[in-house]
Here is the input.
Amino acid sequence: MKRELRETADGSMTIYLPEMDEHYHSYHGALQEAKHVFIENGIRLFPKKDTISVFELGLGTGLNALLTAIWAENNQQKVTYFGLEAFPVEREMNLAMNYPRMIPESNDFFSKIVDANWEIETNINSFFQLYKCQSKIQNLQLNQQFDCVFFDAFGPRAQQEMWDFKILEKTIQLLAPNGLFVTYCAKGQLKRDLKALGLKVETLPGPPGKREMTVAWKI
Ligand SMILES: C[S@@+](CC[C@H](N)C(=O)[O-])C[C@H]1O[C@@H](n2cnc3c(N)ncnc32)[C@H](O)[C@@H]1O
Here is the structure.
């Protein structure tokens, strides 16, 4: 599928898929959206523990992984991060994203994330270990549970099947008891499905350009 680089409103880059008419991030600001949703209203809410495990659906450019690696180091909180991606971004395009220039604390983390081998645990810094898994969520066989799930699929308009009850159910099975599910989406159907799966759902203010986002706790 053809991918094009685009600049978003905060100056950070994203990828645009013309065939799906879909962006990897909010065009109101990729960086500010990722920080707001997955860090400030995501992993930051999870109680401190020896190691927090994260499962991301849609590793994409690695922006959420980068921000989590920085957060882990700043907070001296160990994080293991399982990044699932069915269709990896080509290396050259991935390295063309301007995140390290926009985020001085990136150090060499971004290039390490891009160049980390698939299906091998890689230390990105002393607090952040990454495992990149190339698979469709539909084919994933994983006997593991995680403290946080970052659900960062393309939107329901572009890829409805990712928001179907079966995929959500499979994803929620990957969440440990007391685990936190985070997504930028705030659609009513999603929230009803999460409630039906037994989660405690909260609607939070969204990043600039989006009214709301969703977090849900497995109780
Ligand atoms: C919104 S983008 C993710 C953006 C990403 N988190 C980032 O920081 O750049 C959605 C991602 O889901 C991936 N994807 C699409 N279908 C998938 C599937 N069936 N299983 C796993 N990943 C899928 C896409 O290739 C894309 O990278």
